[in-house]
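[job 4471] stage=fold_predict status=RUNNING
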Amino acid sequence: MNKRWLNNSLARGQYFILCITEKQYLRACKECGIERPTVWLRDCDQACVHFMTNKEGQRSAIVCLDDSGLSLLDIAVYLTHETTHLWQNHCEHIGEDAPGTEVEAYAIQNILEVLLDSYLKMVPKAKGYLEYKPNPKKVSTGMIELTDQSAEIITDAVQTKEDV
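[job 4471] inference complete, writing structure tokens
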């Protein structure tokens, strides 16, 4: 697999890739040795996952997302939904009927993180949506009150953590 294919560290599960265009989907199918791929997205779908096994028996999954007209929240929701299918397929493949809830939560979190990271690398303009921008007015976050000054400290702490 070339380096566009995403991390399969989930218990050495299947490889998976995110495609946001039909052209990317067809290229990924070709790399998997699929001669007659199914349709990228049905008319009613905004996202889906195609599961496949190549001639060598390697399992892979292609996550398809048509992001046109979607907000970043919509994209996160669709990718979370498809992430759940990736996890369910993995459990079915290994014969796991009742994974532990914490294991399942971490697995879904890991897969989603990889998909979102892939999306942000493909669509750099979306990255701005995730940057923290403090509100100049006092913001209530439940039991903690943030002012501009404390919001700036939190922002610096986050940036420092990412830089490490």
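[job 4471] summary: The chain has two domains: 15-130, 132-164.
[job 4471] exit 0
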